[in-house]
């Protein structure tokens, strides 16, 4: 039976990468976001179409390694444990999108009620805005609703892990620069509210990931002068990757925490869900960028367990 993962905010920059990684791990992924379907002409839309044609794991493999699209199953790396683990769960409905307002507790609860067989939940909901009250609501209240749903006795009885994507608390290091109410104070306070809801209520079922500046290629929807839609690719890795290498080499730790590769963040989030049933690997509490790198680079015992089965 295919494991199901609920992904809030899965059409955004971070969420779309988490969706790919979850599919590669053999999950059926149900994405809940305000927009519902992914933006046209984006890699996420292409992924959705390919999932319907070749199944989740193969489509995810193609998204990570474009050359794999031209290869047959026999041409794939025989040592790829994740792909072998997921070959039997290539259902065409492995990726599903639902329109939902996560700031509404009732909508969050209804969504969870519709998927009682889900084994894990990841929240990639985040809004970076100078609107103090909106930022607190979208970054804090949403996570509070999800944590409450995880605690509800009649919702998600099989869910073993809730992973909340938070942020490195830079406002504590530079309070006069980014901690002002007119700047990003609402964003960071909202993230702290979400963290508190997870850590105080879920115990070892909850994990908070605190990435720094997240880099990769971000796709932004635009409206052209003619009224048609367009997508702009922002290569955030041009800034983030060199800084990551530099600060990791000098050991920046918290004050100068290195940027976080979106692929590392996504892999750590999915592995946290997969490892929830493994007592020796279960991760809870708070994980910073260094812990995420450690999780993403470690041998995956969940893949070995699936191979033995």
UniProtKB/TrEMBL annotation:
Residues 6-131 form the NAD-dependent epimerase/dehydratase domain. One of its GO terms (molecular function) is protein-containing complex binding. InterPro entries: ComplexI_NDUFA9_subunit, Epimerase_deHydtase, NAD(P)-bd_dom_sf. One of its GO terms (cellular component) is mitochondrion. Coiled coil: none annotated. This is NAD-dependent epimerase/dehydratase domain-containing protein. It comes from Strigomonas culicis.
């Amino acid at each position: 039976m295919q494991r199901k993962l609920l992904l809030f905010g899965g059409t955004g920059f971070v969420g779309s990468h988490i969706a790919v990684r979850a599919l590669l791990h053999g999950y059926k992924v149900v994405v809940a976001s305000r927009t519902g379907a992914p933006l046209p002409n984006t890699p996420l839309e292409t992924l959705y179409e390919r999932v319907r044609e070749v199944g989740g794991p193969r489509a995810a493999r193609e998204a990570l390694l474009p050359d794999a699209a031209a290869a047959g199953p026999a041409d794939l790396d025989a040592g790829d444990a994740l792909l072998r683990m997921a070959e039997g769960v290539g259902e065409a409905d492995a990726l599903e999108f639902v329109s939902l307002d996560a700031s509404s507790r009732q909508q969050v609860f209804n969504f969870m009620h519709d998927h009682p067989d889900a084994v894990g939940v990841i929240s990639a909901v985040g809004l970076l805005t100078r609107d103090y009250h909106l930022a607190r609501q979208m970054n804090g209240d949403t996570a509070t609703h999800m944590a409450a749903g995880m605690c509800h006795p009649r919702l998600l009885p099989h869910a073993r892990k809730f992973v909340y994507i938070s942020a490195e608390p830079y406002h504590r290091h530079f309070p006069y620069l980014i901690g002002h109410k007119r700047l990003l104070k609402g964003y960071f306070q909202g993230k702290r509210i979400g963290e508190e809801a997870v850590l105080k209520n879920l115990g070892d079922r909850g994990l908070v990931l605190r990435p720094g500046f997240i880099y990769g290629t971000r796709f932004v929807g635009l409206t052209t002068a003619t009224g048609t839609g367009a997508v702009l690719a922002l290569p955030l890795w041009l800034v983030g990757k060199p800084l990551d290498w530099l600060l990791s080499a000098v050991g920046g730790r918290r004050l100068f925490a290195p940027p976080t590769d979106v692929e590392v963040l996504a892999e750590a989030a999915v592995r946290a869900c997969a490892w929830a049933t493994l007592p020796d690997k279960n991760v809870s509490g708070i994980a910073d960028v260094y812990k995420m790198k450690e999780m993403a680079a470690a041998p995956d015992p969940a893949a070995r367990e699936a191979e033995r089965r």
